[in-house]
Specification:
The protein is built from 9 helices and 10 strands. By secondary structure, the protein is of the alpha+beta class. The chain has 3 domains: 65 residues, no CATH class; 101 residues, Band 7 domain (Tetrahydropterin Synthase, Chain A); 114 residues, no CATH class. Strands 3-2-5 form a 3-stranded antiparallel sheet. A 3-stranded antiparallel sheet has the order 6-7-8. The chain starts with a helix and ends in a 15-residue tail after the last strand.
């Protein structure tokens, strides 16, 4: 009987000890902090770190706080931009607890409170930004949201580490306008690129034409120099060859030229003054022939007067009144090398060296190569 009672008491004591151990011993993980409420009160000294912790049963009530970084997903929110464009925005918030006591005492559900504050803060931030800036300045919006949320959650013992906008969905008409704008921008860039290519091509062509013109001008200059040198050498050879030609040969050349002029269908010819000197030479030959026909002995001793002989005199024989255009007559004196005053060659000698004589074709009955005085 006594033994049974003793065993029962021992069993009860064992159960009490086990219950006491269960209520007084707590294991805190490395990523946790434990806030202990003793008789409903707590302070900074009641915050326990990781490890094996003992509590006073029934008196102490523990509350564990996860201090790891966590995230919440804010569902898509319809907000209105500064230029009254409705858009849908959803984003992620990364946060962690830096003060376990405040997170337990100052807020009941930190994640829920953070999500509500993030929704209202998002609308306030987007409402101050234009649609184009919302679409192009995500990093700036993320930083503004993070700063504002961090200010609010500081009193809750939390820390907002990162805010990331995941998607911005503008209205359908805005998307169409953006697509048209994008297409126009690409077209503009293509046109600019094409114009730049055309401009560069034109510059290259102009440069090539410039170089070609320079090279061609240089070639023309060299060719002109070579032609001039060749012409100069040809003139020198002609001049050197002309020194060995006598007056008779030159007279025959002049006569050939007159023959060619006479065969031409033209009725008026402008000839140089040298042709009058040719007429003097031909007249000398004619006088010599006439002298040979009248007095053979005298003609044998007669010589052709030189062109520059001052003793050679000419005069004009008056024309017959019945034929005003009749040719003049000439006579040769008996003295050699001298033409007397009564002899007149049938050619005019009034034209100056600088005034060209004129040949005129008078008609079928006149000579084709006659030499007349200018009117």
């Amino acid at each position: 009987m006594d033994l049974a009672i003793t065993l029962s008491v021992l069993a009860i004591l064992l159960v009490v000890v086990l219950v006491f151990l269960y209520l007084s011993v707590r294991v805190v993980q490395q990523y946790e902090q434990m806030v202990v409420f003793r008789l409903g009160r707590t302070n900074e000294g009641m915050v326990r770190g990781p490890g094996l912790r003992f509590l006073v049963p029934i008196v102490d009530r523990p509350y564990k706080v996860d201090v790891r970084e966590q995230f919440i997903e804010v569902p898509s929110q319809t907000t209105i931009t500064k230029d009254n464009a409705p858009i849908n925005v959803d984003f992620l918030i990364y946060w962690r607890i830096v003060d376990p006591l405040k997170s337990v005492v100052n807020v009941a559900y930190f994640a829920g409170a953070l999500q509500g504050v993030a929704t209202t803060t998002l609308r306030a931030v987007i409402g101050d930004i234009l649609l184009d800036d919302v679409l192009s300045k995500r990093e700036q919006i993320n930083e503004v949201l993070r700063t504002k949320l961090d200010e609010v959650t500081e009193r809750w013992g939390g820390k907002i580490t990162t805010v990331e906008i995941r998607e911005i969905t503008p209205p359908r008409d805005v998307q169409d306008a953006m697509n048209r704008q994008l297409s126009a921008e690409r077209t503009r860039r293509a046109v600019i690129t094409e114009s730049e290519g055309s401009r560069q091509s034109a510059i290259n062509v102009a440069e090539g034409q410039k170089q070609s013109a320079i090279l061609q001008a240089e070639g023309d200059r060299q060719a002109a120099i070579l032609r001039a040198e060749g012409f100069s050498q040809a003139l020198e050879r002609i001049y050197s060859a002309a020194h060995g030609i006598d007056e008779k040969t030159m007279t025959l050349q002049y006569l050939e030229a007159l023959k060619a002029l006479g065969a031409s269908p033209s009725t008026k010819f402008v000839i140089p003054t040298e042709f009058t000197r040719l007429a003097e030479r031909v007249g000398g030959f004619v006088d010599q022939g006439f002298s040979a026909g009248i007095d053979p002995g005298t003609a044998a001793s007669a010589t052709i007067p030189p062109m520059d002989d001052p003793t050679m005199a000419t005069r004009r024989t008056p024309r017959s009144p019945s034929h005003p255009r009749a040719p003049a007559t000439s006579s040769v004196s008996s003295s050699p090398n001298v033409v007397g005053p009564s002899s007149e060659p049938p050619w005019p000698r009034k034209s100056s060296p600088r005034t060209p004589a004129v040949l005129r074709r008078k008609g079928p009955s006149s000579s084709r190569s006659g030499v007349t005085d200018p009117e």
